[in-house]
Specification:
Blueprint: E1 17-18, H1 21-28, E2 36-39, E3 42-45, H2 51-59
Antiparallel strand pairs: 1-3, 2-3
Length: 60
């Protein structure tokens, strides 16, 4: 019996949307469901780690 999670397909990231820096800090920074990054006025969804990256963290 393996205790490792099975690999799943990641959902496609949403297209970038234009927001102010204040909107980013107020509405998106603390979102626990999705991790966002504010980059020069664009809100970008950061992809979740994949299964290979997860396995690499186990070996370190």
């Amino acid at each position: 019996m393996s205790l490792l999670p099975t690999p799943r397909e990641s959902p496609s990231p949403q297209p970038s949307i234009s927001v102010t820096e204040a909107e980013y800090w107020e509405k998106y920074y603390g979102d626990s469901e999705v991790i966002y990054e504010w980059n020069n006025g664009l809100l970008e969804e950061k992809p979740v780690s994949d299964y290979v990256n997860y396995l690499m963290t186990l070996s370190s």
